[in-house]
Amino acid sequence: MSEQPKAVALLSGGLDSMLAAKVVAEQGVHVEGINFFTGFCVEGHTHAIRQKDKDKAKRNNALWSAEQVGIKCHIEDISQEYVGVVTNPKHGYGQNLNPCLDCKGFMVAKAREWMEANGFDFIITGEVIGQRPKSQRRDTFPVVADESGAGDRLLRPLCAKRLEPTLPEREGWVDREQLHDFTGRSRKPQMQLAAKYGFEDYAQPAGGCCFLTDENFSRKLADLWQARGTREYDLDDIMLLKLGRHIRPAANYKLIIAREEGENRFLRGYRKRFHAVQDLDNPGPLALVEGEPDSDDLDTAASITARYGKGKMADRIRAEITPPWGEPYVTEVAPMPPARIPEEWHV
Amino acid sequence: MSETGESREALDARGLLCPMPVIRTEERIKQLAPGTVLEVRASDPGVLYDIPSWCRVNGHTMLESREEADEQVVIVRVEDA
């Protein structure tokens, strides 16, 4: 070990991980933060795209946390490797498609790799016993430590006093007495500690930055997997699931209809990958058609798309359909009345 | 080399959404010598917040940030951080 102990802190951007890093940094340990990009973070992407979100604060909460604590922060792209965690979680899913326990183990494993590659001594997380029903329980803590390979180099400063002493405590790299004994779902102790450190304006809710915990997003992802007959996905799939109105009239195709101008602009970038449909006669949304639609399906897609534009009351409209990498052609359809779009088509 | 003698590099992060431009910036800066000036060109306005923030916490110097039409340009000097 180097003279000054070194710890890498997993920073989610939420309050707990920020506090955990601060508690250890205060003891004279050299702490650096690490934040993992899985592709499923709620922030950032949609704010950058949707017009109505333009005025929202665009800060990256992990970087903001690091700045408050006064430590460096590295952001690592693990989105490719993360596919395996989402598609095949050893410990199953939570309430939606959130593989929280596998996710935590994977992230701590990636932090361990980083620790070893950079000559650091231990890992810090903001976990609290009983804070999360799926992944933060007394019986899951050893699972994360074991499966990540971190073993007793994994320190949870916010609840360490309720756990067996870890290597950093036994070696005296940190003073166990200055660690905490938080437990349960109450946020009060964290808020008191935040006040002590002068942390304000921290992200809320704590650590909720994952689309996989969102019921609507999980339903769309499950629909995508079912339609493809495989659980594979790529980053573009994730992006498109976050945006637009998703309507599946049949198993072989689905529409993704922009809801506002920002989404219209973004979806335009995918015109070479999917069929693109737009009303030629009236202002209205761009729609992408994913799957393997035939020409009748594309007419139906044009009819549905027209229903969401200014021409929805017209008898007929001309729609332009552009196949992937193909020449656009024009079709004429009647906008579909809302009553003919059954609720079950809405993904 | 620029007129002032520093080495200049460019990173095209257009089409990427945050935090990917920050990740690409960090990856590139790891390969650059202190004193090098890196110009990042992006299309996500989030870089105007994220790259300066990343520079502050990681000890690099943000020289300039500006918008050009629908693009953002952020210029960073690599420090011995």
Structural write-up:
The complex is a heterodimer of chains A (347) and B (81). Chain A has helices spanning 15-25, 45-49, 61-69, 79-87, 100-117, 141-148, 167-170, 188-197, 215-228, 235-242, 261-268, 295-307, and strands spanning 6-10, 30-37, 72-77, 122-124, 154-155, 245-250, 253-257, 275-279, 287-291, 317-322, 329-333. Chain A is of the alpha/beta class. Chain A folds into two domains: 6-212, Rossmann fold (3-Layer(aba) Sandwich), CATH 3.40.50.620; 243-345, no CATH class. In chain A, the strands form two sheets. A six-stranded antiparallel β-sheet of chain A has the order 6-7-9-8-10-11, with helices on both faces. The model of chain A has no long low-confidence stretch (mean pLDDT 91). Chain B has 81 residues and is of the alpha+beta class. Chain B has a single domain (8-77), classed as TusA-like domain (Translation Initiation Factor IF3), CATH 3.30.110. Chain B is 28% helix and 33% strand. Chain B is built from two helices and four strands; from the N terminus they run βαβαββ. Chain B has helices at 20-30, 47-58; strands at residues 8-13, 37-42, 61-68, 71-77. A four-stranded mixed β-sheet of chain B has the order 1-2-4-3, covered by helices on one side. The longest helix of chain B has 12 residues, at 47-58. The radius of gyration of chain B is 12 Å and the shape is globular. The two termini of chain B are 22 Å apart. The model of chain B has no long low-confidence stretch (mean pLDDT 93). The interface between A and B is medium-sized, with 25 and 21 residues.
Which two protein chains have the largest interface (Cβ within 8 Å of the partner's Cβ), and how many residues from each?
A-B, 25 and 21 residues
Overall pLDDT metric of chain A: 91
Taken together, the total number of domains of chain B comes to: 1
Provide the residue-averaged pLDDT of chain B: 93
CATH class of chain B: Alpha Beta
* Total count of strands of chain A: 11
Shape descriptor of chain A reads elongated
Structural class of chain A: alpha/beta
Largest sheet of chain A: 6 strands, antiparallel
Largest sheet of chain B: 4 strands, mixed
Radius of gyration of chain A in whole Å, from Cα?
A: 24 Å
Radius of gyration of chain B: 12 Å
CATH architecture tag of chain B: 2-Layer Sandwich
According to CATH, what is the topology of the largest domain in chain A?
Answer: Rossmann fold
